[in-house]
Amino acid sequence: MNRVLLILSLIYLTTVKTTAQDLISKIPKDASAVITLKGKNITDLLSVKEFENSRLGKVFLKEIKRDTDGKITNLEGFGLDLNRNFYYFLQTEEGVLRHNFLVPLKNKEAFLNLLSEKEEKKIVTDNNISYFVDQTNTITMWNDNSLLVVHTQQENKYNDYSYDESTELIEYATEGVVEEEAVVEYAEEAVYPIMTFTETEYDFGNITEGDVVEHSFKFINTGDVPLIITVAKGSCGCTVPSFPKEPIASGETAEILVKFNSKGKLNKQSKTVTISTNTEGGVEKLKIKAYVYEKGEDVVEETVVESIEVEEIEIEETVFESTEYEGIEETVIESTVYNNNYNSKNNREEELKRIEAQKKAIEKLVLNAKATMAGNYASILKNTNYVKSIGKGTDEITAWINDFNTIYEDIMPLNMFGLNSNSMFDIRRIYGGTSLVSNLNFEEDNASIKTKYTMNSEMASYSKAMYNGKINKKFFNYFNEDKTLGYFSINMSTEGLLNSYPKLMNTMFEGIGKGEEKDLAAVGTRLFSVLIDEEAVAEIVRGDMLFVLTDLEEKEVTYTTYEYDENYESKEVTKTKTEAVPSFMFMFSSTEKELFHKIMNIGIREGDVTFENGIYEVKVPDLPFTTSINVLFKDDVILMGTSIEQLTAIKNDKYVGNVSSKHKKLISKNASTMYVNGNHILEEIPSEMFPSDIQKEMNTLSDYAEDAIFKIGKVKGNTLESELRLNIPEGKGHKNSLVYFINMIDSFLD
Amino acid sequence: MIKRYLKYAFVFLCFSLFTSCFEILEEINLNADGSGSMVVTFNLSKSKSKLASVMMLDSINGYRVPSKEDINIALKDAENHLKTIEGITNIKRTADYGNYIFSISCDFNKVTNLDAVFKDLIQQHNKRERTSFNTTNFSFNKEANNFKRLFSYDGAIKKSFYKLKGEDRKIFKDASYTSIYRFKDMVKGVSNSNAKIAPNKKAVLLKIDAMSLILGEKTIANTVELTK
């Protein structure tokens, strides 16, 4: 009881303290995603001093010290308040993503000390707020106790690319047709010519603009049938290949001459020549490269060119700065000097427009950031969905994503993913009402990531049907927990899946609306349900399965190496080494005994399978050791395993299963569970399989190995929960799971 | 069909457990007149479980898995290349897919013939990747009676190594490179401190682990002084 009181008062104290100065009040109610890093919770587990004294901390600080020229020697040096919450939140608006980072400041001077001279020069101060802008899309703003960094990302620029892509696609499609024709001709033989080039890439080096250069690529047809080249094309009009029109017999040599006209090209050029042939791939590619200098320009060495490039970039940056603070005219003059493209009047007007747009973007960036710093609006704490999902846990990190659908609509340009009026998929029906919460939590004896996925009722009903499987209780008779390295279970309902699938498809294609496609989709899905008898399929595979890793068996494998006599004459010798081969048992429910035996009998006829004492044996070929997989049908369960002994025992009802209620629950109550017995695996893996430098650390390693569990729950209401949990070994001196991770990293940092 | 499915499933399970590594062996027997024979052997037999598993798949870690035919073509290409070099005769290649050992051997009239084998390839590589590997690998000075294995380390090796995924880098952890040079004359001394001279003074052995070579900590460059 005392403990409960203590915890309650602690929670009360921390909430009082955090609401007093927490930055969360600056996050707007309509933020699309929020990630919280709870400083206090983290420093409670591992104090700043403890971190600084750990090996990892020391390495980290050493790097920081070097990077900042000795300005920072400890975590305090950043000027951040590590005991308060750090936030990231996302705002979406008409194709623009705004990434906001809100960080509590403890010592403003320390933070300012970290800025570069260049950044310092750009600082603008407005009352108690200061800021500087990088490029046109990132702003850093601060007052006495908080720091905000906003990075904006334009999503609708993809509009431009999507057009280019589609034209390219058409090009490829036509090539594809040629390919197919060629394939058809030789399809019967299924033997192909092979085009072996002496080189597939050629660099013309430095050339002057206007030069026409050429290179011939020699090749041999190393295949057994004649080679036919149907067409060869350059990736631009400047690259013209010529190719032999006659078939090239097996073993014969020929060449492809590629001419490159550098007129109008400048700087680094790289072109591809695509050759459509009757080779197996159908297409062969050649590449040419050149560095084109302007006429009259001195050809300079590569290194010099590089330094010029760097200078240019810096000049461009200063152009931006002058745009912001000095006015436009001067900037245009500057850029004219450095870029010949802007000579024409048209380009000049465009450039002016561009600069105007940039100016507006920066203004907007500053205004938005100031609004966030002021926080004079309804905050995310007024968003009931957020408050309810986050709760008041002792998590160290939480992530929350609001309605997926809104994010999609805000950020995806309309014509991407077919979201326009002719939309293929109805995103709203699939993602509407979908949100996600994820918590990272370091406890004393475990660390976990819990994720809660909430969907709309329609999607939930489909998911429920799919995950509504019941694990076959007989599985527990065929599995011994003490001899298990790990397992993986799936608990789905094949029948539910097959029932839901056509409905899901209909939902997805609902958006098509007017066209014929809608009817087509509906016909298709109906056909699916007619053709597939859900119940019949479900009898073959019911949807529940369990894979158990029972052992790692050591197999001796020989290998050849060399020994040298005293005169260093080498002699081949055969030695042996050990490989670990997994032993496993895989089981799934099936009521189709007859069908199973029919399939296995086909295997016997084909010679792949042997049958003895009621157990089918399938040998795994081509490996340097012998191993086989044995299959048994027993009481509506198909069992496949590496151990014939275990299967024989199961067949004769001699096998004794042993599964604790903990694992029975994990397997039957979840849609899927993955369990790894860390300690056990470590014991089983032959030590020689570890790299020699880790072998010495084997004892230390066992201090860190414990169980890990990943489970996906069944759908409850509209939510699907999953959890990844790592248990921390007891009595090995780890104060809590965060310290455990730091200790683990430390032990490898020797 | 059943066999194939089960085989894939099994291979998938085993794959990450199998360990891998390889050896490269470079042997040269040099006559007093500067002619001789060379054998280069790639021995992957320690990785044969892994390779046997890989060969069943079409691609792994995003790389296409070469078929036996692909490997044969590559070896044949190497042989064809050797045929174009003057002074190189008696070219032989072996491929043992049971143990994954591949070798190629030839006789040469002069050490410079041997050099010509790699000269073009290295020149192309230097141009393409802007590296500065020496294009001369071997030299034999009859006057001074010394044999040189030349090698200049280029930072590009380390760079391309770190470009590999962590999983792929492991292959080099236990890999090694061994060179054995045998002479008719007695060996007076060697410049590489890692090289060992045989008790009969007629052979020099140098074994270097791949990591030291990649990181530039050790070199395969060596000058062997022979008695006149």
Which percent range fits the helix content of chain B?
25-40%
Overall number of domains of chain B: 1
- The H/E string of chain B reads HEEHEEHEEHEEHHEEEEHE
> Which assembly state applies to the chains in this document?
heterodimer
Mean pLDDT of chain A: 76
Largest sheet of chain A: 20 strands, antiparallel
What is the helical fraction of chain A, as a range of percent?
25-40%
Tell me the β content of chain B.
25-35%
Mean of the pLDDT scores of chain B?
84
Alpha carbon gyration radius of chain A:
34 Å
**Rg calc of chain B:** 20 Å
Backbone shape of chain B: globular
Report, as a whole number of angstroms, the end-to-end distance of chain B.
68 Å
- Low-confidence segments of chain A: 8-20, 157-190, 298-342, 414-423
How do the strands and helices of this protein lay out in sequence?
The complex is a heterodimer of chains A (750) and B (228).
Chain A: H1 2-21, E1 33-38, H2 39-45, H3 48-53, H4 55-67, E2 85-93, E3 96-104, H5 108-113, H6 117-122, E4 124-126, E5 129-134, E6 138-142, E7 146-154, H7 158-186, E8 195-197, E9 201-208, E10 212-221, E11 229-234, E12 239-242, E13 253-261, E14 267-277, E15 283-293, H8 302-325, H9 329-338, H10 345-374, H11 384-390, E16 397-401, H12 404-411, H13 427-431, E17 435-442, E18 446-454, H14 457-466, E19 486-491, H15 494-509, H16 516-531, H17 534-540, E20 544-564, E21 570-589, H18 593-606, E22 609-612, E23 615-619, E24 628-634, E25 637-641, H19 644-651, H20 661-669, E26 670-677, H21 678-684, H22 692-695, H23 698-702, E27 707-713, E28 719-727, H24 737-748
Parallel strand pairs in A: 9-15
Antiparallel strand pairs in A: 1-2, 1-16, 2-3, 3-7, 4-5, 5-6, 6-7, 8-10, 10-13, 11-14, 12-13, 14-15, 16-17, 17-18, 18-28, 19-20, 19-26, 20-21, 21-25, 22-23, 23-24, 24-25, 26-27, 27-28
Helix pairs in contact in A: 8-9, 14-15, 15-16, 15-17
Chain B: H1 2-15, E1 23-30, E2 36-43, H2 48-56, E3 59-60, E4 63-64, H3 68-83, E5 88-96, E6 101-108, H4 111-129, E7 138-141, E8 146-149, H5 155-163, H6 166-169, E9 176-183, E10 187-190, E11 196-197, E12 203-209, H7 210-214, E13 222-226
Helix pairs in contact in B: 1-2
